[in-house]
């Protein structure tokens, strides 16, 4: 039975959408509302027939953004009535210990998503706004939450347990949860389809964007990942610190007279590549500054690349070897210089990349004699959301 399913990825000031015909996985329309809450919000969409649309207008909130999306679906002709949409799948950042798989949303699920906002303050509140907006405008559609954390529920205790007093682990569910689950899950599905299960059985997926994480995937299951209890942990990111010595926090609180909110804001918004370079959170800007002789920009890139290399080395141990190294997301898909620098430090694993293929952003960028396949795969989190939604609503 052919069904229309809408995949939604809501941010604090943006809303991405794709409408799928399932189970054919055919995209009928995709688009985005950006700068929600501003007078000059930008709304873009494109249909599979090639029709493109772009407007700049006031969009007050997520409900107004949702109204624009529904209007576009009707005006583009991909639906004649909104009742044709049987399911709406929502990306939700943090499912905590409650959800190890995607679930249909009810009042209890919505409440828990809200409660977990303390662990994902940049994402869960925005995800919930998207859910509430579509519940109002598509009351007949079944709403499904697809959690970033679910894919990582297969990690063994040795990988997700923190060395804290166990009473806190039990009381508050403190553990490594991991994020970008839909992206890592999609990358595995593409690698398996392209190269077969025997090659995909030892895969390291590098999701490198403004937010970044690395995942070790063994036989299709996440066995370790760099983000942790919250999306702040792991790699150096655009504005996020990643892993640091925890004693730094009380030290700064005492020396700079900071409270917990000050520290949280500093770690999430003022740190990472931006914090070290003082230039930007955008890798392209930092690479440009480095080429102009900016030493802090060079240091930021050195730290950024070095930490990626550290995680790849550690995760190769977790996998007992490495067959495929994958790059995805904004930096991973488009920054040949970063991919080259990362791989230059991995020659001990038998990794060699072809400079011409790397510069061209080819799917496979390794040399013929490389012992490890190195691939560049554009991620498609919305497709995973649609698949999960179809599975849940049956």
TrEMBL record:
<comment type="function">
    <text>Catalyzes the formation of acetyl phosphate from acetate and ATP. Can also catalyze the reverse reaction.</text>
</comment>
<keyword id="KW-0067">ATP-binding</keyword>
<keyword id="KW-0418">Kinase</keyword>
<feature type="binding site">
    <location>
        <begin position="282"/>
        <end position="284"/>
    </location>
    <ligand>
        <name>ATP</name>
    </ligand>
</feature>
<feature type="binding site">
    <location>
        <position position="381"/>
    </location>
    <ligand>
        <name>Mg(2+)</name>
    </ligand>
</feature>
<feature type="binding site">
    <location>
        <begin position="207"/>
        <end position="211"/>
    </location>
    <ligand>
        <name>ATP</name>
    </ligand>
</feature>
<feature type="site" description="Transition state stabilizer">
    <location>
        <position position="240"/>
    </location>
</feature>
<feature type="active site" description="Proton donor/acceptor">
    <location>
        <position position="148"/>
    </location>
</feature>
<dbReference type="InterPro" id="IPR004372">
    <property type="entry name" value="Ac/propionate_kinase"/>
</dbReference>
<dbReference type="GO" id="GO:0016301">
    <property type="term" value="F:kinase activity"/>
</dbReference>
<feature type="site" description="Transition state stabilizer">
    <location>
        <position position="180"/>
    </location>
</feature>
<comment type="pathway">
    <text>Metabolic intermediate biosynthesis; acetyl-CoA biosynthesis; acetyl-CoA from acetate: step 1/2.</text>
</comment>
<comment type="subunit">
    <text>Homodimer.</text>
</comment>
<feature type="binding site">
    <location>
        <position position="16"/>
    </location>
    <ligand>
        <name>ATP</name>
    </ligand>
</feature>
<keyword id="KW-0460">Magnesium</keyword>
<keyword id="KW-0963">Cytoplasm</keyword>
<keyword id="KW-0479">Metal-binding</keyword>
<dbReference type="InterPro" id="IPR023865">
    <property type="entry name" value="Aliphatic_acid_kinase_CS"/>
</dbReference>
<keyword id="KW-0547">Nucleotide-binding</keyword>
<dbReference type="Pfam" id="PF00871">
    <property type="entry name" value="Acetate_kinase"/>
</dbReference>
<feature type="binding site">
    <location>
        <begin position="330"/>
        <end position="334"/>
    </location>
    <ligand>
        <name>ATP</name>
    </ligand>
</feature>
<dbReference type="InterPro" id="IPR043129">
    <property type="entry name" value="ATPase_NBD"/>
</dbReference>
<comment type="similarity">
    <text>Belongs to the acetokinase family.</text>
</comment>
<protein>
    <recommendedName>
        <fullName>Acetate kinase</fullName>
        <ecNumber>2.7.2.1</ecNumber>
    </recommendedName>
</protein>
<feature type="binding site">
    <location>
        <position position="91"/>
    </location>
    <ligand>
        <name>substrate</name>
    </ligand>
</feature>
<dbReference type="InterPro" id="IPR000890">
    <property type="entry name" value="Aliphatic_acid_kin_short-chain"/>
</dbReference>
<keyword id="KW-0808">Transferase</keyword>
<feature type="binding site">
    <location>
        <position position="9"/>
    </location>
    <ligand>
        <name>Mg(2+)</name>
    </ligand>
</feature>
């Amino acid at each position: 039975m052919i069904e229309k399913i809408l995949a939604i990825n809501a941010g604090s000031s943006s809303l991405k959408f794709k409408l799928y015909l399932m189970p054919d996985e055919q995209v009928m329309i995709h688009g985005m509302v950006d700068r929600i809450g501003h007078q000059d919000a930008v709304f873009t969409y494109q249909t599979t027939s090639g029709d493109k649309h772009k407007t700049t207008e006031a969009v007050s909130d997520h409900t107004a953004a949702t109204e624009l999306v529904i209007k576009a679906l009707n005006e583009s002709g991909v639906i004649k009535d909104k009742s044709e949409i049987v399911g709406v799948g929502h990306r939700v950042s943090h499912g905590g210990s409650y959800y190890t798989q995607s679930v249909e949303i009810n009042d209890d699920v919505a409440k828990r998503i809200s409660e977990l906002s303390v662990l994902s303050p940049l994402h869960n509140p925005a995800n919930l706004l998207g859910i509430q907006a579509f519940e109002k405008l598509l009351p007949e559609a079944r709403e499904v939450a697809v959690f970033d954390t679910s894919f990582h529920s297969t990690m063994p205790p040795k990988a997700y347990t923190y060395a804290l007093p166990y009473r806190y682990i039990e009381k508050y569910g403190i553990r490594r949860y991991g994020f970008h689950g839909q992206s890592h899950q999609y990358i595995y599905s593409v690698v398996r389809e392209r190269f077969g299960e025997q090659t995909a059985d030892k895969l390291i997926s590098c999701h490198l964007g403004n937010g970044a994480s690395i995942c070790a995937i063994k036989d299709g299951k996440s066995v370790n990942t760099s983000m942790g209890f919250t999306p702040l942990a792991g790699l150096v990111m655009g504005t996020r610190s990643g892993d640091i010595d925890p004693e730094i926090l009380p030290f700064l609180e005492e020396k700079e007279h900071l409270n917990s909110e000050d520290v949280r804001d500093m770690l999430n918004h003022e740190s990472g590549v931006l914090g070290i370079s003082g230039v930007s959170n955008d890798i392209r800007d930092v690479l440009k500054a480095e080429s102009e002789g900016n030493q802090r920009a060079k240091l930021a890139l050195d730290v950024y690349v070095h930490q990626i290399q550290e995680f790849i080395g550690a995760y190769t141990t977790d996998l007992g070897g490495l067959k495929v190294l994958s790059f995805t997301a904004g930096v991973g898909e488009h920054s040949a210089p970063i991919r080259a620098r990362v791989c230059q430090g991995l020659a001990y694993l038998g990794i060699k990349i072809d400079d011409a293929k790397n510069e061209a952003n080819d799917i496979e960028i390794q040399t013929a004699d490389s012992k490890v396949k190195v691939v560049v795969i554009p991620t498609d989190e919305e497709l995973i959301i649609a698949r999960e939604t179809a599975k849940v609503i049956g």
